[in-house]
């Protein structure tokens, strides 16, 4: 029972990208430097925060630090488009903030968002029994190998799963600590704290609804949208935007419009991701189609198809869905039949229309919240169009390096691969539908 041979997540193996830091001279110089490379600035801040956390862990126990703390730090620094910190940053900048206190706070809170995402992804891989994440062994698989156990043995699987739960918990603890230790004016701290507490609970609620839908084998369209709202729209888009607005001291009207734009964009993302999960081209998505069907995911697409088939008395369509949904041995022929049901019932076209409507609503509401012709508003408009799956080619200002920052196209084997090779369209992995 040897150690896992594939490369594992390592804190020491995560060099920082080269790019401008938040230093400079004159009012707003630090913010303008971050504007040029938001991801690089977030990663520099993450490196400093995590180095301190790992050092504290080492003082407690070397094994704990090397096996668990270092792995959580390395996982957080690797891969991903950092969309949540980018939304937070550009939400703040679109609302007019550029002072040094807000700049430093936005970067630290961006790190906290990445850490809570680390918690979510580690736990999600355990729940979905995913063996890979970002082309490497998932944390529970790597931890079993680190202990010299086979992840396929009963003992190794039990240890890896239990240790991964602790790793996810540690990431959540670090996220909370990072928020608590961020310097903020009292009024801003109260606003940010309320948003942070709500987001954590919403994230768990969304995952529970998703698990419940899979276990019970059914979900209404309303329930599916509610799950998408909690897992994708609120956690991944709306709350990061609201935190950015809070840092900028935005008023209630601006914040409400910004949140509405984020919610519409986040749900549009989820609907498009549901479609890609069934109709996506494997050459572009990097994974076989149909994982959501195999896993019995209670998607809006599936709920609409079932509702329409029931209303039409289409027993044949219902039989196809009954055989295929939740069947881990789904064949290409079975999947083709499911696609046929989605087309024949009109579910495919309906979901496409809804995604387009929500995308347009997000753009309209953002225009009510901020000046989309100004630099910060223009960047935020590009991000929301990307989130909502706008394929028109209109995105953030191509003159800044943040506009087209990194893709992450090598995720796990069950529901975690990137669903497009196009850097301009987000996937469930980054946008949050499966965490």
UniProtKB/TrEMBL annotation:
Pfam family, one: polyprenyl_synt
Region (Disordered): 1-30, 390-435
GO molecular function, one term: metal ion binding
Nucleotide-binding recorded as keyword: no
Domain of life from the UniProt record: Bacteria
Cofactor: Mg(2+)
CDD domains: Trans_IPPS_HT
Composition bias, Low complexity: 395-412
Residues in coiled coil: none
Entry keyword Magnesium: yes
InterPro entries tied to this protein: Isoprenoid_synthase_dom_sf, Polyprenyl_synt, Polyprenyl_synt_CS
Keywords of this entry: Magnesium, Metal-binding, Transferase
Family designation: Belongs to the FPP/GGPP synthase family.
Name of the protein described by the UniProt record: Geranylgeranyl pyrophosphate synthase
Source organism of this protein record: Kitasatospora albolonga
């Amino acid at each position: 029972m040897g150690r896992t041979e594939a490369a594992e997540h390592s804190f020491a193996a995560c060099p920082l990208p080269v790019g401008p830091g938040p230093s400079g001279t004159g009012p707003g110089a630090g913010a303008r430097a971050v504007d040029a490379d938001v991801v690089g600035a977030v990663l520099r801040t993450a490196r400093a925060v995590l180095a301190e956390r790992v050092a504290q862990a080492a003082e407690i126990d070397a094994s704990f630090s090397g096996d668990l703390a270092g792995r959580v730090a390395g996982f957080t620094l690797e891969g991903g488009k950092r969309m949540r910190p980018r939304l937070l940053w550009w939400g703040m900048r679109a609302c007019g903030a550029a002072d040094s206190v807000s700049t430093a706070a936005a970067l630290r809170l961006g790190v906290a968002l990445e850490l809570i995402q680390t918690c979510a992804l580690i736990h999600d891989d355990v729940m979905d029994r995913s063996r890979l994440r970002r082309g490497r062994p998932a944390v529970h698989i790597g931890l079993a190998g680190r202990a010299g156990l086979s992840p396929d043995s009963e003992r190794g699987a039990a240890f890896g799963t239990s240790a991964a739960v602790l790793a996810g918990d540690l990431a959540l603890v670090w996220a909370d600590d990072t928020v608590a230790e961020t310097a903020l004016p009292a009024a801003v701290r109260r606003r940010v704290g309320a948003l942070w507490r709500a987001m954590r609970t919403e994230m768990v609620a969304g995952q529970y609804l998703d698990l419940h839908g899979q276990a019970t084998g059914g979900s209404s369209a309303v329930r599916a949208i509610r799950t998408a709202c909690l897992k994708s729209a609120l956690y991944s888009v709306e709350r990061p935007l609201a935190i950015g607005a809070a840092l900028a001291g935005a008023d209630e009207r601006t914040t409400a419009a910004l949140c509405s734009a984020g919610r519409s964009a986040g749900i549009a993302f989820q609907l498009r991701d549901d479609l890609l999960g069934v109709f996506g081209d494997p050459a572009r998505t990097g994974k076989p189609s149909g994982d959501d069907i195999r896993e019995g995911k209670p998607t809006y697409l599936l709920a609409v198809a079932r509702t329409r088939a029931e209303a039409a008395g289409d027993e044949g369509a219902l039989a196809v869905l009954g055989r295929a949904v939740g069947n881990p041995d789904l064949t290409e022929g079975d999947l083709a039949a499911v696609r046929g049901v989605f087309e024949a019932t009109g579910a495919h076209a309906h979901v496409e229309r809804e995604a387009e409507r929500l995308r347009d609503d997000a753009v309209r509401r953002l225009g009510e919240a901020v000046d989309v012709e100004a630099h910060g508003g223009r960047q935020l408009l590009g991000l929301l169009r990307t989130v909502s799956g706008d394929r028109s080619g209109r995105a953030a200002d191509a003159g800044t390096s943040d506009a087209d920052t990194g893709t992450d196209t090598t995720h796990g084997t069950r529901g975690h691969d990137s669903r497009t090779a196009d850097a301009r369209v987000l996937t469930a992995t980054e946008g949050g539908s499966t965490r």
